[in-house]
UniProtKB/TrEMBL annotation, chain A:
Classification via PANTHER family: ATP-DEPENDENT HELICASE HRQ1
Organism, as annotated: Frateuria flava
Pfam families documented for this protein: DEAD, Helicase_C, MZB, WHD_HRQ1
The protein, known as: DEAD/DEAH box helicase
PROSITE patterns: HELICASE_ATP_BIND_1, HELICASE_CTER
Domain Helicase C-terminal: 296-449
A GO molecular-function annotation: helicase activity
ATP-binding found in the keyword field: yes
Alphabetical UniProt keywords: ATP-binding, Helicase, Hydrolase, Nucleotide-binding
Family matches, as CDD domains: DEXHc_Hrq1-like (cd17923), SF2_C_Hrq (cd18797)
Domain Helicase ATP-binding positions: 81-260
């Protein structure tokens, strides 16, 4: 590739004068780009609060700490020590890099040294587990403590497993391994369980939604197995900031928990800027792309000699932004790279290498997905740029928390995308500043999940009598499993009888199991270059897709769905691809109904089908759409719960000139309802989805290229409705997980608020006819129309608002 | 159900047959042991289980064991449970057949039968009587010697090649779980009897393969390259 001249040099020079830190850069950006900054505030740093090393710490451990330069504890570490020594279950909730791990390391090591007690650590990812063991080994070595810590995960070789089971004092694993490898083989771990004293669960904020509901059930199974071995381990949980740490920890382990939420770690000031890209077309509410702005801010920070971390929402965007930054900083192939991408889907060795380089400080810019949101140790950074709102306040603060070295000022910039939720937030900075972090929710008693785990539990130990699992006696579930033929009842015992290993059929993290591997066939060889998880496949690995790995484009030639493989070849194109997907719903069961203005609101169970219909080719830099391609993949189906609103046909006929108008109104109303609902229940936006369709599932509505509602039939093809066919368009907001995880019930309770809030949002929006911040993007032609999309959406909402 | 009900739901079948003439000492060089083992110490064993899935949910419903008596005759004993509750009695009975100096003989038993029984003893809260016993697993020497020569190294192949055993009306091992389950659910015992028959033949073949293998010494691999 040819070296490009730095075409930004001149404009960048205006901003960059003299040395920089987070505060200086925040000030310069605010001055130069005042009109783009919608909010600016400072989270003040704080002094450290310290406590002496506890007197009851084993002397060798105290010595080890001192030899590593730790002469005192932060106050939260000392509190955690006291609470664990009282035998309490403890949850520690403090910011990134506040020394959380010492909160559990001290009691665990102390118990191991004094009583030979064992501990199980659970981390959500293998990478975190490996970091943790490396730390433990260092401390162990420093103090010659004689405590053995091992990781136990899918990569642990078979011959090492026996030794770990017998000799590990601290076994560091993840919930998936506990679920699939440890609990179903608990007899091999008998010695470990008989001496198990502590269970440490870090990053518990990641255990929410479906994943969290599964993990809560794995913990139920863990406790059941522990009871068999006559032990009751103590739990220590850690979390990044969430709104309900105590409640969430208690929901996970179903025991009272002492929450420690005051961090004693010192921190520097954190400057936060909310950044809205400049308006390009004010009439249409069209703005410059977030990506161009993110690129600019990151570029300026790196040029100012700061270390920057950019978070992007998708793997594709990670690659695009990496390419842009590399075009500026890494055009000389003789020099070591200064920019790196980091995301899931790279092979573990590649991720480890990236982590090492980042810690070593040779990398100046990192572009990452949420993979770096967790406590992966990558050293210190000065600036964090979010390319788009990550979907929750908690994630936003957690990502900002990545920046900050000790007492130095750090900068976090949220660059709003055109996504309506982003626009809503940057235009309401007061909401952003004042918003408490989200609550983590789980639904451990969700029937499908519960049944899965009762099945696994029955394999591990027979159920006897009226044994309770979760919400009550397991008996009715056992009867189901008996009828299925996997359990055999004899007297009051339910014994596993099937020749199967149920944990293998239950994935904690996704609906359908099985990662896809990406196989590079360039030059006739076959090399595995990446892994992609199942749910991302339909939108990233369709045939024709450009799949980027460290900014090198590969084209997908063939997708072997059954074999879980995508075959790609190296390519040299100047575009990337973006999937176009559609959703249709059908109501299966209605749990509750009420009137909603002149219409009705309901909640209940629905069947959702999601289909990727095709993809767009988008050229780099100009972002013009240069073509389409078809995609032919199996539909993704799920049963879940939803809340929905509909209006009777006669109401629509009175209010609208035609069906097209009504459809456009419903699309706009759905758009606005989805924004306010996402904020109202503090859901992550991807967990809550919207759709407009017919009440009977016969058709659904998709936006066409012009942004107008277009009827599509069951096959996804555009269709026309016979003039005498029934017409009851319906707005659905649905839980994007199989079975639902409890979002639709609170939405139904707040149905009147939601409609009112959506109306306010649309009504008070600055735009003329509708824009991405209220009813969705519209065309210039609609601007002049008498019935603008905005007016139509308001009319639908007006009919639904409580009288 | 054949045999005698020695505890509720636990049946014992016994047969004493003439089967080969072992030397008084078995050469164990093939297993890289230092000393020969007295034939009287040997106990051949083989379990029939509810499946191959592994883990805590798989159990043995039949344990067969066989040894040569002082008079040179081959005594085959099989324990079969017809209720889940009888498992503990079966495990205790089998433990009673083992002495401190017993040497186990099996085919893939080190990887399969012994760990499975270890799990069952643990779940029954009983000490594992197999712990510390010598164990000659014949799969390994057979593999070392005949891998790549025979189409596979399963016991059925070894017995045909080495002993000329051809089974008649044999119930394949893979159908054993279904046979037991059918009986448990009130079906006929026909197939369960065939499982017992199969298990008894396995024990005879084990003993036969042992005598052939023990003559090999620390056998070098076959002249065929091993992939």
């Amino acid at each position: 590739m040819n070296a490009l001249p730095d075409r930004y040099q001149a404009s960048d020079d205006l901003v960059l004068r003299g040395p920089s830190d987070g505060r200086a850069l925040a000030q310069r950006l605010s001055k130069r780009y005042a009109e783009r900054i919608t909010g600016s505030f400072v989270v003040p740093g704080r002094e450290g609060s310290f406590a002496p090393l506890p007197a009851d710490l084993p002397p060798a451990l105290a010595h080890a700490l001192r030899s590593r330069g730790i002469d005192a504890l932060y106050s939260h570490q000392a509190e955690a020590w006291v609470a664990t020594q009282r035998g309490e279950q403890v949850a520690i909730v403090t910011p990134t890099a506040s020394g959380k791990s010492l909160c559990y390391t001290l009691p665990v090591l102390s118990a191991a040294m004094k009583q030979g007690a064992k501990a199980l650590y659970l981390f959500p990812t293998k990478a975190l587990a490996q970091d943790q063991v490396a730390d433990l080994l260092e401390l162990n070595k420093a103090g010659e403590l004689g405590v053995k810590a091992f990781t136990f995960d899918g990569d642990t070789p078979g011959d090492a497993r026996q030794a770990i089971r017998l000799h590990g004092d601290i076994v560091v694993s993840n919930p998936d391994m506990l679920h699939q490898a440890i609990l179903p083989h608990h007899t091999k771990w008998a010695q470990f369980f008989e001496n198990l004293r502590y269970v440490v669960i870090d990053e518990v904020h990641t255990y929410r939604g479906v994943f969290g509901s599964h993990v809560a059930n794995v913990i139920r199974r863990l406790k059941r197995v522990c009871a068999f071995y006559g032990v009751t381990p103590q739990f220590i949980l850690c979390s990044a900031t969430i709104g309900n740490p105590k409640e969430h920890a208690e929901a996970l382990i179903e025991q009272p928990v002492t929450a420690i939420t005051q961090s004693g770690a010192p921190s520097g000031d954190r400057h936060v800027l909310l950044w809205n890209p400049p308006v390009i077309n004010p009439d249409l509410g069209l703005r410059a792309s977030a990506r161009s702005q993110t690129n600019r801010i990151a570029r300026l920070a790196i040029k100012a000699g700061m270390k920057a971390l950019v978070f992007a929402q998708s793997r594709t965007m990670v690659e695009v932004l990496t390419k842009y930054l590399k075009d500026v900083f890494d055009h000389d192939p003789r020099k070591p790279p200064r920019i790196r991408a980091y995301r899931g889907g790279y092979l573990p060795t590649e991720r480890r290498a990236a982590e090492r380089e980042m810690r070593a400080g040779s990398i100046d810019g990192i572009v990452s997905t949420s993979a770096l949101e967790l406590g992966v140790d990558i050293g210190s950074l000065d600036v964090v740029v979010l390319n788009g709102y990550p979907g929750s306040m908690a994630a936003t603060w957690q990502r900002f928390g990545r920046a900050g070295r000790r007492q130095q000022p750090a900068l976090g910039v949220l660059v709003a995308s055109s996504d309506p939720l982003d626009q809503y937030l940057v235009r309401h900075p007061e909401f952003f500043e004042g918003a408490p972090p989200e609550h983590a929710r789980i639904a451990a008693d969700q029937p499908l999940i519960l049944l899965d785990h009762i099945r696994c539990a029955a394999f591990e130990l027979p159920f006897v009598g009226d044994e309770v699992f979760g919400p009550g006696a397991a008996t009715p579930w056992l009867e189901v499993l008996g009828e299925e033929g996997v359990l055999h009842r004899e007297g009051d015992r339910w014994e596993w009888i099937a020749d199967s290993y149920p944990a293998n059929a239950v994935s904690l993290r996704s609906v359908a199991d099985g990662n896809f591997v990406v196989v590079d066939r360039t030059g006739g060889k076959q090399t595995i270059i990446a892994e992609v998880d199942y749910t991302a496949v339909p939108v990233t690995l369709y045939e024709g897709a450009i799949h980027m790995i460290q900014s090198v484009p590969y084209q997908v030639e063939r997708l072997d769905w059954e074999g879980r493989k995508a075959f790609v070849t190296r390519t040299h194109v100047d575009y990337y691809t973006d999937a176009i997907d559609y959703t249709k719903l059908k109501v299966l069961d209605c749990f509750g109904s009420s009137s909603a203005g002149r219409g009705e609101a309901h909640h209940g169970e629905v069947h959702v089908v999601r289909r990727v219909a095709g993809y767009k080719k988008i050229r780099y830099y100009t972002h013009e759409n240069i073509g389409y391609g078809p995609v032919n993949l199996p539909d993704q189906e799920l049963h879940t719960t939803a809340v929905w609103w509909q209006l009777a046909q006669r109401e629509l006929e009175q209010a609208f000139d035609g069906r097209q108008q009504a459809l456009d109104g419903f699309l706009g109303a759905a758009y606005a309802l989805h924004i306010v609902a996402t904020v109202a229940v503090m859901a992550e936006s991807r967990d809550l989805q919207k759709s407009v369709g017919s009440a009977d599932g016969a058709w659904f509505v998709a936006s066409d290229i012009a942004g107008r509602g277009q009827l599509r039939g069951m096959d996804g093809q555009p269709m026309a409705l016979a003039p005498d066919a029934p017409f009851t368009p319906t707005v659905y907001l649905y839980d994007a997980f199989p079975g639902g995880v409890g979002l639709s019930a609170p939405l139904f309770e707040r149905r009147e608020d939601l409609v009112r809030m959506a109306m306010t949002l649309v009504d008070r929006c600055d735009c003329m006819a509708g824009c991405p911040a209220c009813v969705g993007p519209i065309l210039a032609a609609d601007e002049a129309a008498a019935d603008t999309p905005k007016a139509l959406a308001l009319r639908v909402l007006g009919l639904l608002v409580a009288l | 159900m054949p045999g005698e009900e020695i505890a509720s739901g636990l049946f014992l079948t016994e047969a004493v047959v003439d089967w080969l003439s072992p030397p008084p000492l078995i050469d164990t060089t093939f297993a890289r042991w230092d000393e020969a083992v007295g034939t009287a110490r040997l106990l051949h064993f083989d379990t029939e289980t509810t499946g191959l899935a592994g883990g805590t949910g798989t159990r043995a419903f039949m344990i067969g064991a066989a040894h040569w008596e002082q008079n040179g005759r081959f005594r085959i004993r099989q324990l079969t449970i017809t209720t889940m509750a009888a498992e503990t009695a079966m495990l205790r009975t089998f433990a009673g057949w083992l002495r401190d100096d017993t040497v186990l003989v099996s085919y893939n038993g080190k990887s399969y039968d012994a760990p499975l029984l270890a799990t069952r003893y643990r779940l029954a809260r009983l000490p594992n009587p197999l712990t510390g016993l010598g164990h000659l697993d014949l799969l390994h020497p057979v593999r070392r010697r005949w891998k790549g020569v025979w189409e596979n190294c399963r016991l059925a192949t070894a017995e045909r090649q080495l002993l000329g055993v051809v089974r008649d009306d044999d119930l394949p091992g893979s159908e054993a779980p279904a046979a037991w389950l059918a009986y448990l659910r009130g079906g006929p015992a026909t197939n369960l009897r065939r499982v017992a028959h199969h298990n008894a033949q396995d024990l005879r073949s084990l003993a036969g393969v042992l005598l052939r293998v023990s003559g090999l010494g620390a056998c070098p691999p076959a002249a065929v390259p091993i992939a």
